[in-house]
């Protein structure tokens, strides 16, 4: 957080710094962001994780959103970059299952590594938006849907932005992002529950009509295959064995 505060000192205009410390009172990322955005008064809103580092070139992103208010500005990340294409059922299965990661590598690569300057699904770790775009998204009653407290809230935001005519453009501005800052102390089982349950992937799939029942069946098959491989003992399945079981269990919650 101290690094972020030092970066803000390089911003050439007055800044209203708002943050919520979830280590003191954990209300979930989505709810915290919604509260802070309702307090924000500026014509440009910057979402920034506490583990992001930027310089005075950030002004080019704020200028861009003022000139193109229906376009969000996305930086070039050094470190963790979670920008992706928008999901569909096939992409979700290739991303979330062990079998999919094995047989669907070209699809997963296309999903995880979007090409060009138009970003369909930016991560929320650092994002610059105009007040006009934010207000349009807030017409739903929220910026981030609070049924997704930690994961999939940014994906849901990108889906709603697409429907509202808001796009996201990658600018040649570098932001350093460490990644996994807020989840460093969360154990694997809890992380899987947040990512794959109704508070995550299954809830997202249900909201957007991505056939959650098919995803659950895929997780079930994935878990069976993991058990068989482990029983045969011909292949060290390692962490994938445990994660396959945890994914399936989380999808039922």
Task: Summarize it.
With 253 residues, this protein is α+β, with helices and mostly antiparallel strands. It is built from twelve helices and five strands.
Question: Could you describe the 3D structure shown?
Answer:
- By secondary structure, the chain is of the alpha+beta class.
- The chain has two domains: 1-83 and 119-183, Spore Coat Polysaccharide Biosynthesis Protein SpsA, Chain A (Alpha-Beta Complex), CATH 3.90.550.10; 89-113 and 186-253, no CATH class.
- It has twelve helices and five strands.
- It has helices at 2-8, 29-39, 58-67, 89-96, 98-103, 105-112, 131-138, 153-163, 188-196, 201-208, 212-232, 239-251, and strands at 44-48, 52-53, 71-79, 126-130, 167-177.
- The strands form two sheets. A three-stranded mixed β-sheet has the order 2-5-3. It has a two-stranded antiparallel sheet with strand order 1-4.
- α4 crosses α6, α9 crosses α12 (239-251) and α11 (212-232) packs antiparallel against α12 (239-251).
- It is globular, with a radius of gyration of 19 Å.
- The relative contact order is 0.15.
Q: How are the elements arranged and paired?
A:
Layout lengths: L1 H7 L20 H11 L4 E5 L3 E2 L4 H10 L3 E9 L9 H8 L1 H6 L1 H8 L13 E5 H8 L14 H11 L3 E11 L10 H9 L4 H8 L3 H21 L6 H13 L2
Helix pairs in contact: 4-6, 9-12, 11-12
Rg, nearest Å: 19 Å
Helical element count?
12
Can you tell me the CATH superfamily of the largest domain?
A: Spore Coat Polysaccharide Biosynthesis Protein SpsA, Chain A
- Order of secondary-structure elements: HHEEHEHHHEHHEHHHH
CATH architecture designation of the largest domain? Alpha-Beta Complex
**Mean pLDDT level:** 84
Work out the helicity level: 40-55%
**Major sheet characteristics:** 3 strands, mixed
- Spans with pLDDT under 50 lasting ≥5 residues? none
